[in-house]
């Protein structure tokens, strides 16, 4: 039986992820192995494992890096707290920050808000590296309150004369965030909002693409990672907009392709932290079992974040 696979208009690596991975690879060329990376450079096991094979050592703490090393350490695309950079300086480490420029923009926003004596509400997920890195920009962590859902908004209390502003994590659900923002504005009508949405273009585009597919297919598969916020949001988006069978695939080698027999039209996408070749691998494996017609709707986002000149 002929099966159709529809690929998402926007999928795969975003510009921030491409830049971060390229920074690691160019560091390997310039300095040789090992290159140290604090935490996963991006939330994707396929990417991390490939870099390990090339000589990258991933660490959870700078304390794991040998004393006196001349090899570089790279901070992930999610951004890090100021104390991490201070620690790298104290240890005399050669470090490069691969923070996504769109996350860096939020860091600048939050510092400016603190200088202006705002109490800052951050919409995000507790424990996510981006949230920890953003909060870690502040001189006083008491100036930040994290909200994850509308229930958290209902519990908030601030004096009437308190200057309030909100920011968001870049990889949130557009739909859920709109609901939380509406609740914040209703409760605190004078709250200051960002001049432009903090949710990044790639997150918005990928969710919009899944939304379009959800009404056309029987199932949607998202290639990504279970610890990736943007991956999980794509699954949630697909289900919300009508595709009840939406599944996240972290390891294609472990996926049971026989289950595709239950569906005639299948949507396929890769999260902003998943490389395009994983999508191709899925299609190749599926073609060994089924007669496929692939409808590729890809559109280029035409956004590039350049690697720093000192790595070229």
Describe it.
The model has no long low-confidence stretch (mean pLDDT 95). The chain has 3 domains: 2-13 and 201-296, Cobalt-precorrin-4 Transmethylase, domain 1 (3-Layer(aba) Sandwich), CATH 3.40.1010; 15-101, Rossmann fold (3-Layer(aba) Sandwich), CATH 3.40.50; 102-187, 4-hydroxy-3-methylbut-2-enyl diphosphate reductase, catalytic domain (Cobalt-precorrin-4 Transmethylase, domain 1), CATH 3.40.1010.20. The chain is an alpha/beta fold and 312 residues long. The chain is flat, with a radius of gyration of 21 Å. The longest helix has 17 residues, at 15-31. The protein has 10 helices and 12 strands. Helix 3 (82-90) links the parallel strand 4 (73-75) and strand 5. It has a 5-stranded parallel beta sheet with strand order 10-9-11-1-12, with helices on both faces. It has a 4-stranded parallel beta sheet with strand order 3-2-4-5. The protein has helices at residues 15-31, 45-54, 82-90, 101-115, 129-135, 150-154, 174-187, 201-214, 229-240, 276-287; strands at 2-7, 35-38, 56-59, 73-75, 95-97, 119-123, 144-147, 164-168, 219-223, 245-249, 265-270, 291-296.
